[in-house]
Amino acid sequence: MSSVQTPPNEAAPSPLNVTPSQRAAVVIAMLGETAAKPIVDRLDDAAMANVAASLETITYLSRAQLIEIVIDFLRHLRQSSGSLRGGPESARKILSEVLEEPRLQVIYGTGDVIEEEILPEPATTEDYSRIWQQMASREPAHIAKYLEGLTPNITALVLKNLDTTLCSELLCMLPEEMQTKVLGEMVNPPPPTPEIDAVIARMVRMEFLLAPETPDEEDDTQLMSVGEMLSLVPNERRATLMNYLSQSHADKVDPIQKGMFEIADIPELLHRNQVPILFKALDQAFILDVLLCLQSRYAKVAEHFLSNISNRMADQLKSELERMKPLPDEVADAVEKDFLTKMMELKRDEAIVLERPEAPEE
Questions:
Q1: Is 100 exposed, middle or buried (0-12, 13-18, 19+ CB in 10 A)?
Q2: Region label for 87, one of left (φ > 0), alpha (ψ between -120 and 50) or beta (otherwise)
Q3: Any idea what DSSP says for residue 264?
Q4: For the chain, N or C: smaller number of CB within 10 Å?
Q5: pTM here?
Q6: What per-residue string of b and e applies to 199-227 under the rule 16 or more CB within 10 Å gives b?
Q7: Longest pairwise C-alpha distance within the chain
C-alpha cells in the first residue's frame, strides 16, 4: 500500500498560526499512547523527526486551540474521498506491511499461535442527550460563566444543543462583546458533524458537569477582599469608587460592602469578647498610639476597647495616655491605616472575628 503524498500546494496556516505539520503532531500527541502507537509504528524515522520538530516549535496551546485543532481534523476526515480495495491479494499485501512476519504467519496458518492479552473494547457511544439535559438543569448563571471561557464558535456549538428559551437567556447573560460573535456563529454554522458534537459533549461533561459547583463562594471571598482593600482608601476616594461600582457593577456591591469597614464601624463589627484577643495580638506601644488617635477622632471606639478589657489593664492604659502628646495628623492617619491593616490580617488568619450583624427581618 503506497503512502499518501503531501500535495504540493499545502494548506496555509490557520488563523491560530499553527502549521499543518504542527496540527498533525498535536493530534498524535492528544491521542495518547494506546491510540497513537499504531500510527507512530507506521511512520519512518524522517516522519517521526518531523513530528518531534513540529512539537518542539509549539510554545503553548490553550484548551480552546486544542479543541479547534481536533474539530478541524475531524472536519477534514469527513471530507476525505479516499477509498480502499479489498480481496485476498490486497488483504495479504496490506497486512504484510503493518504486521511482523511471525504474526502474519499465524494469521495465514503457517506459524504457532501467539497468545495475546485481550483488552476490553473501549466504549464508542454515549448518551449525549443526557449530557445536555444535565447541563440545562444547572443554574443559568453558572452555565453562562462557563461559556464565557470558551471561544464564540465553541459556545455556539454548545448553545445549539440547548432549549431555545434557555439558549436565549444564556446569550443575554454573556458579555456584550461576545454576544455578537456567538450570534454570528449561530447564524452561519458549520455543516452538522456528529463527531464534532461528540467532542463538544465530552468536553462539557469533563469541564463543567464533573467540576465542583462552587464559583459563587469563591467570587464572594474575592469581592470581600476588594472591600477590605477599599477600607484602606481615603474616605473621599472610597466614596467615588463605590459610586462607580454601584453604577457599573451593582450586583457586586453587597459582598464588597460586607468586607469593607471603617474604624467607626468597629463597635458594631467586633464583639466585646474579641477585644482582649485583639489587644493580646498587638504590641502595647502600638495600642497606645491607636488609642491616642481614637480618643480624639473616634471616642466611641476608644470607649468600646477600654470598657471590654480588664479594669487593671484599662487603668494602666489610661494613665499612659494622659502623659502622651497628641500625634500630628499625618502620623495619626498612618497609625489608623496600619491599625486597619493589622485587623484585616488577624481576620484573615481567623485570630479575630469581624462580622456585620444581620439586619432584623421586617
A1: exposed
A2: left
A3: G
A4: C
A5: 0.39
A6: bbbebbbeebbeeeeeeeeeebeebbebb
A7: 109
Residue in 202, 168, 265, 189 with CA at minimum distance from that of residue 70: 202
Looking at the chain, the whole-number percentage of residues with pLDDT higher than 70 is: 68
Q: Are 332 and 298 in contact (CB under 8 A)?
A: no
For residue 150, give the 3-state DSSP assignment. coil
C-alpha cell belonging to residue 26 = 498535536
Nearest to 197 by CA among 67, 24, 15, 18: 67
Say if residues 223 and 153 touch (Cβ distance below 8 Å). Answer: no
Give the torsion sign (CA, 95, 101, 102, 106).
positive
What is the DSSP code (8-state) at residue 2? P
Handedness of CA 195, 57, 153, 158 (dihedral sign): positive
pLDDT digits (tens, 9 = 90+) for 213-226: 554 544 566 676 67
CA angle 107, 110, 116 (to 5 degrees): 45
Local structure of 246: helix, strand or coil:
helix
> What is the rounded end-to-end Cα distance, in angstroms, of the chain?
83
**In which residue are the cell numbers 479543541 written?**
67
